[in-house]
Amino acid sequence: MNEVLIKFESEDKTLSLYIEDNRSSAWAYLKECVDGVILKDAFIYSPIEPSVELNKEEISQGMPPALISKYASDEAVLKNAQESAFDVEWSSEGDSVAILYNGNPLAAIYSSEERGYSKALGSESGFGNPWSEEMFNEHFATNC
After folding, report:
1. What are the CA-CA distances from residue 101 to residues 34, 61, 85 (Å)?
2. What residue spans of the chain are helical by DSSP H?
3. Confidence label for 5 from pLDDT (cuts 50, 70 and 90)
4. Predicted TM-score (pTM) above 0.85
């Protein structure tokens, strides 16, 4: 699979969400449209089976970390993701966003939370927080 980079903009054009899959991990980055500063991120999925240990060499080269099995959920791996299957849902306030794949939420970034939430995560870690259906329902009027 080729590297994926997709951009979505909020309705008011103040925020943009980038989805990046570099073939070892997939992350969402919430940025300000004006200056491109990354405000928050969320781990979305692993395009490969999680390894046992972090690849510190890749991280030292500035690459985002690949998920390790210690923090992976049963839903962590999504192989051969198709760019056209991705979409986002912005909260009614426009400051939180859910990342959808084939209409189903995979991850979310909430304005009130420091770290993103993801169905790929089985426990809280440096990758973010495990999925919370309750938080999703609080922030998004439409259930996906």
Report:
1. 27, 29, 5
2. 56-60, 133-139
3. confident
4. yes
